[in-house]
Write a structure and sequence with these properties.
With 232 residues, the protein is α/β, with parallel strands linked by helices. It has one domain: Rossmann fold. 49% of the residues lie in helices and 13% in strands. The strands form two sheets. A five-stranded parallel beta sheet has the order 2-3-1-4-5, with helices on both faces. Strands 6-7 form a two-stranded antiparallel ribbon. Strand 6 and strand 7 form a beta hairpin. Helix 5 runs antiparallel to helix 6, helix 5 crosses helix 8 and helix 7 crosses helix 8. It is globular and about 45 Å long.
Length: 232
């Protein structure tokens, strides 16, 4: 059976990832694809234990937790889902994930101000997850880009999330400087690895585009990818 495709929606906090993730899965199903979805971190699973503790500040602020250590927390959660992902792909299904390895690259890489060290870290993450842990590599990563100044306002509108234990924002979302640096890092990722990442701008003329407009831009990228995907 032909292997399925693995597509990931990435982006900074407040960029509308969850919404576009759902819309993309729906569009694919409407187009006749069999779709399996994953939403990381998987807060209801034991594999996300360290992620939950980290985001609520159990280990201190994000500055107190080094990027490599924090990356391991998230990577272990993804590792726990690998057999499910592989099984879906073997069955010829299209796997769509909300966040994946690039979320480590964007958020943890944002902790490093030195450009040389940051780029070395970005490559380290790929080697650690895809190489050492053997995590499945996506066929297409789509990065939703929303400037940090707009994204933080959108984060404030999010509903209550149980894993935050009453807090409105996690330790990343509460820091505008971190959001700005994460935005910069995601843009850097798209430039460093152009074959793996496609950037979708979610703002036009200084204003946030409608959900429908962003959906069409995402679908355009996905259709182009599916058309070029080799058979067999």
């Amino acid at each position: 059976m032909k292997r399925g495709s693995f597509i990931v929606i990435e982006g900074t906090d407040g960029s509308g990832k969850s919404e576009q993730f759902k819309r993309l899965a729906w569009r694919l199903r409407q187009a006749g694809f069999r779709v399996t979805t994953f939403d990381f971190p998987r807060y209801g699973e034991p594999s996300s234990h360290f992620v939950r503790e980290y985001l609520t500040g159990r280990y201190g602020s994000w500055k107190d937790v080094g990027p490599e250590r924090a990356s391991a927390f998230y990577a272990l959660d993804r590792l726990g889902a690998q057999e499910e992902i592989r099984a879906a792909l073997r069955a010829g299904k299209t796997v769509v994930s909300n966040r994946y390895v690039a979320s480590n690259m964007g958020h943890q890489g944002a902790k490093l101000q030195n450009a040389k060290k940051r780029r070395a870290f970005l490559r380290w993450v790929r080697g650690f997850e895809y190489g050492m842990l053997g995590i499945v590599r996506p066929d297409l990563n789509i990065i939703l880009h929303v400037p940090a100044r707009i994204a933080q306002k959108l984060v404030g509108k999010k509903g209550e999330r149980k894993y935050l234990k009453g807090k409105k924002r996690d330790i990343h979302e509460a820091d505008i400087k971190h959001l700005a640096q994460a935005e910069k890092t995601y843009l850097e990722i798209a430039k460093l690895f152009p074959r793996d990442f496609k950037l979708v701008e979610c703002v036009g003329n200084g204003k946030l585009l409608s959900k429908e407009a962003v959906e069409e831009k995402v679908w355009s990228v996905v259709k182009k990818f599916l058309t070029k995907k080799p058979v067999g």
